[in-house]
Amino acid sequence: MVRERVLGMVRRVSAVSSGHPVTSRSVAAILAGLLLFGSFPPRPWWFLAPIGIAILTLTVRGDGRLRAGFGYGFLAGLAFFVPLLPWTGIYVGPLPWLALSTVCALYLGVFGLVGRLVGTLPGWPLWVALAWTAAEWGRSSFPFGGFPWGRLAFGQADGWFLSLAAVGGAPLIGFAVALTGTGTAALVSLFWSPLTPEGKRQTADDENGTLRSVAVRGPATRLGYAAAAFTLLVMPLTGLLLRSALPGAEADDRTVTVAAIQGSVPRLGLDFNAQRRAVLDNHVRRTEELADEVAAGRAPRPDVVIWPENSSDIDPLRNGDAAALITAASERIGAPILVGAVLINPDRTTTNSVMVWNGAAGPGERHDKKIIQPFGEYLPMRSFFRLFSEYADRAGYFVPGNGDGVVQAAGIDIGVATCYEVAFDRSFEDALRAGARLLTVPTNNATFGDSEMTYQQLAMSRVRAVEHGRALVVAATSGVSAIIGTDGDIRQETALFVPAALVAELPLRDDTTLATRIGPAPERIFVILTAAAALAAVARRRAAPGAGPTSVQ
Predict the structure, then answer these.
(1) Do 315 and 342 contact (CB within 8 A), yes or no?
(2) Is 82 helix (H, G, I), strand (E, B) or coil?
(3) Residue 376's pLDDT is what?
(4) Theoretical Cys-Cys bridge with 310: which of 10, 26, 108, 444, CB 3.0 to 4.6 Å?
(5) Which of 261, 166, 248, 289 has its CA nearest to residue 506?
(6) What confidence category does residue 209 fall into, taking pLDDT thresholds of 50, 70 and 90?
(7) What residues form DSSP beta bridges with 492?
């Protein structure tokens, strides 16, 4: 009786959808995008992501025009990125925010098109999931170096899929979430699909003895259910099983005591660094306070102190006062300090650097930010974009650095990814190859106020810690600073907009994860397989009798 009621309800919903196909699919696409947004921090609802993918997959699949698949994917993209990225327009107005959201949504439109194309192939849940990862690769690469924000992996730091990062990095997490969603879609499709004629038989009704037709699912359908259920469960269960295999501190021979300083800023906004001296003073003051706590025995003495990005926007290599303050703080705490500084080059361009400051010995090794932010740290096609926004000329004149991303402090090789860099898979690749045993992400989020950006970026750092099997220190000017273990768990964190110091004993590891060793190989394989599936689907579509679109859905 219950089963018949459920089937009856499903048929009624299906009938309504059939009567208004474009409207119902558009609403479903928007719902899918909102569910994807809901899976991202600071909300811990990671499980909404595969549900959103399932709904989007059901929406874009069909035998109609490919452009309809693009349209539904684009709608989902707007519903996802518009609420995800408002921090990009907090102080510059809505135009950059909406423009960026629209560009990102185009990639979901491409996913919708490709998803509709490969959704006709045997084993379609696999191909549609691969199409998602290929679309994320495209968005993370083009244009202007790409924009990886909003990749599925970065919403999974609290979920079952996180441990997969140690095997295949963020691309494998994204594929796993997508495959779980497409597996769910396959199961729903089987449940909703009309029953085959040969699957019917006549039987007597128990209540009045009349004959009625009862649908019976045959062996092929049962096999389909089994395959769909397997696809739905394999990735989350694999992630859960791998969780216990992640490295812990007890496996390491050596540890290091690290301090992260959050000095905070005098005010928020794009002009927060107009008071550059105040920002530097804040970080010096909080470091000296930690030194007092160490002297009083209330805190352990750190081997290394990490300041955030832009903690000294006064170039200490050119300004003696800034150099003297940093030197005094380093000597007072008795440890080298990684200082985030803006350095002025001879050609008047600037470099976003993290340098080691060794007390009276002064500056040592440094990491110059290699992946700089377009439309923020520099403006591509400046003369063109200044036509659209008065804020265009407020973009900086930063130039990218080079090097392997490793600085040595107190004899420890530390891998550095500065702020925006952590969103990119390649951010720590060179550093790990160069022998980094500890990772850090110095960041400045003061320009984005109290938005969700801070928590989204923190989740990226958690994924990177698991991906490379390294403890990771986030030092932020205004928060959130954090100490992250090799398993991605947050061991300590600060509140927003308050001066703070975190001190922790962290493992130094030499072993590398499979993800570190194979690098970008999984993502490249995913893209190649997607392209092959798309070509096969095109050939199949052209060879089919009467090939061509049959509807606008």
Answers:
(1) yes
(2) helix
(3) 84
(4) 444
(5) 248
(6) very low
(7) 483
Catalytically annotated residue among 419, 429, 452, 467:
419
Helix (H, G, I), strand (E, B) or coil at 206: coil
The dihedral formed by the CA atoms of 364, 366, 482 and 152, expressed in degrees to the nearest 10: -160
**Token representation of residue 284:** 């010096």
Long-range CB contacts for residues 518-524, cutoff 8 Å, separation at least 24: 518/168, 519/429, 520/171, 520/425, 520/426, 520/429, 522/168, 522/169, 522/171, 522/172, 522/175, 523/133, 523/137, 523/169, 523/171, 523/425
Residue partners of 512: CB distance under 8 A and separation at least 6: 432, 468, 469
Token pair 């990771």 is at which residue?
472
Cis peptide before 42 (omega within 30 of 0): yes
171-194: pLDDT as tens digits: 999 999 999 999 999 999 988 764
Tokens of 249: 């501190």
Q: What's the burial of 249, exposed, middle or buried (CB within 10 Å: 0-12/13-18/19+)? A: middle
**CB-count exposure of residue 8 (10 Å: 0-12, 13-18, 19+):** exposed
Q: Yes or no: say if 338 and 409 are a contact pair by the CB < 8 Å rule.
A: yes
Question: Any residues with CB less than 8 A from the CB of 518 and at least 6 apart, and which?
Answer: 168
Predicted local confidence at residue 550, as pLDDT:
43
| Catalytic one of 104, 136, 309, 370 | 309
List of long-range contacts for 517-526, beta carbons under 8 Å, 24+ apart: 518/168, 519/429, 520/171, 520/425, 520/426, 520/429, 522/168, 522/169, 522/171, 522/172, 522/175, 523/133, 523/137, 523/169, 523/171, 523/425, 526/130, 526/133, 526/134, 526/137, 526/171, 526/175
Question: How confident is the model at residue 203, as a pLDDT?
Answer: 46
- Active-site annotation holder among 104, 136, 365, 369: 369
Whole-prediction pTM: 0.90
Tally the residues of the chain: 553
In the residue annotation, 104 being an active-site residue is answered as: no
What is the CA 3 to chain-centroid distance, rounded? 40
- Rounded to whole angstroms, the Cα distance separating 38 from 86 reads 14
